[in-house]
Amino acid sequence: MNLLEIREVSRAFGGVLAVDRVSLAVAPGAFLGLIGPNGAGKTTLLRLTCGLERPDAGSVHFAGRDVTRLPSHRRARAGMVLTHQVVRPFRDLDLAENVLLGAARELGQNPVRALATFAYRRRQEEALALLRRVGIAELAGRTAAEVPLGILKRMQIARALASGPRLLLLDEPLAGLNQSEARGIGDLLTRLHAEGLTLVLIEHNLAEVLRIVERLAVLDRGRLLAEGEPRAVMREPEVRRAYLGEAA
Amino acid sequence: MDAYLTSLATFVAINVTLALGLNLITGFCGQVSLGHAAFFGAGAYAAALVTTGGFPFAHGVVAAILAAGLLGLVVGLASLRVREDFLAITTMGAGFLFLGFVRKQDWLGGEFGIPGIQPPFAPRGMAVLAILSAVLVWLAGVAVRRSWMGRIFMAIARDEEAASSIGIDTARFKLAAFLLGTMSAGLAGAVYAHVVQLIVPDAFGFVQSITILAMVVVGGIGSNLGAVLGAVLLTLLPEMFRFVDSYKLLVYGGLLVLVMHLSPDGLVGIGRRLLRTVRR
Amino acid sequence: MFYFELLIAGLVQGAMYAMMALGLTLIYGLLRILHIAHAAVFTLGGYVGVLAANSGLPLAVAAALAVLVAAAAGPLVYGTVYRPLLDKPPYVALIASIGLLIAMEDGFRLLFGPYGLSFAENPWFVTGPDLGGIFLSWVQIALGLAALAAVAGLGLFAVGSRTGVAWRATVDDPEMARSFGVSPERVRLLAFALASALAGLAGFLVGLLNNLIEPGMGNITSYKGLAIVVLGGLGNVPGTLWASLLLGVAESFGSVYLDRILDRDAIAFFILVAVLMWRPQGLARGR
Predict the structure, then answer these.
(1) Would you kindly state where each structural domain of chain A is located, as residue ranges?
(2) pTM
(3) Among A71, A161, B118, B239, which is least packed by CB within 10 angstroms?
(4) Strand duo A4-13 + A57-62: pairing
(5) Domain A1-79+165-248 in CATH: superfamily?
(6) Dihedral of CA A196/A200/A202/A207: which sign?
């Protein structure tokens, strides 16, 4: 059974069709890259998948369950977590606390419980473990405002991992990073994938994407152009036209 | 002189209660509310109706807290619907609606309000009651801040979408903030009604809502201590300026502008900065 | 006939709201500031006008003075009060605006007394054309025309002129606007000047209408103006006009029929809350 199924999903904004009857299936343990020229609808598709937007038509299924009507925090609870393109940490909080908030889980659902819960020592250890997993444990005490983007991206991934997701959606995780930082994140994602996590990412950094993903899907002007093995997809004439046509 | 001080202490305590409650909603959880006086009023009217109807004061207090909380829940639900930008105006609108409704209801005394409210204690006793209420709400404020609720409120105040996408049910928490904040306003209302013994709609209008917000902001938004300081300062200020009584609003207004320019994070902000330079 | 009179009264009131709300929506659209102190500029216009008229100047000159002084006061307020606070959280500017309003209102009270001023000679107040049985004072007509002219002017300005296009650009993308040589700062100053000019004129006309200028006259209108800004849609000039007129008429009829239930002033907010519950983005066409 597929972990994620997007069926004939469409969304328009003020007359412009951002996503046009797209269907995608992601098997458990897959590593899918979603690429396409600017404005192709990639981010919209991701937002539709995780629940920040509702589709005008079509449905989203996660682990066999129709989640189209489910709000994003419930989908997060069910195991589908999104990391945003622009890292949005809670700036005055330190990295460990940023991650902790991601670990809130049942506390984030229940205000009464949240009010009654004070201790966070145990949780702090959890947070440190997550930061270790992404390789930045030694920076745990720094505030989010103090650290560079590459570190924030790792923290963002740690935060997403806090709730123990089955599917991680990443919106341009490499945006704004230099060559070596991007490579580092790419390696991290590869490692996480090897540990069993299912990953779907949007990226413009083609070189890095081709290096790490197992499958590739191409979107252009809201429509799915091609999907399959990365190199084969890149050879398809429609895909080349979409990219070269844009570059020209 | 003694009676004057007692009365002053009582009003300071009532304002502290109000400011602490608003701080929960606006300071901790980031939901700008320009209608807080309406909940104060709801509590005052509920308590007044209960006790002038012959029931004991304790029943009045419970009624006040419930009435204010219920109204708070309604406004909170409304606040969930609107965008951030509109929240301030919506809460302002809710405040005017409440007042406009109350003014027209004969059973609530209309324009003339409800007179003849019997205080359960002598003035000293009422002062103690007011102070106890303030302490209670302060304790609640500290509990919120130290607990996970406070952390989650802060996350929502910082970035609601990010909070939602990491699994926080922002709607429930915003409602919780409204509930806690407005219930404490209701408590303050019950005490107030029995201190002044006559309540009129004008005491719960937009100007009062703004005054409470000013207390929170001048003291330092998001800080319990700030709310206390702001309430104390802004309650005492008109009294301190007795000798320039005719200019007091001018001074008060000018002070608000000045504080916003010099230290937007309020008195607590100044304090923190001072501490930091002293430590160095 | 009775209904028609209510309608006219409502439209006149709506015209007055429009003049306040248009300015507020300009400012809110540009700066996301709830310019509560706009009420003070309204009142300022009234005072300048009545003082000028009572010192012997013709009404038209008094009106012009009211507009000019108000138009100067607006950018001054922006520069001294708001500009330093632009990078702070929104409630900071809000509190400052409130403080300014309180201070100015008290200032008016101290300078001109708490009971207000009246026009020594107010020919426009009682005379007016008889339009087939409907009696309209010149002031009411002037208000209506002024509002229409303001809207038309603003509309043309926003769509037609270079500055108008620039204004819209600074709302959507300030960086882009700057790179085209448009100065967001000048746009803001101009916006404040325009908005305040409208408010000053409105204050003068309302003072004529009621034959009273008093320190707190702008308050409730300013608050309702904010509600109208939301209803009409941010920066949406025609939307704001419709919302203003609608509100004026709703108040006119509502104060008669809803008299048992709601205060007149609360009607505006009832409509606001009701509309927002139905359409959280306001009456504007989806954005």
Answers:
(1) 1-79+165-248, 92-163
(2) 0.80
(3) B118
(4) antiparallel
(5) P-loop containing nucleotide triphosphate hydrolases (3.40.50.300)
(6) positive
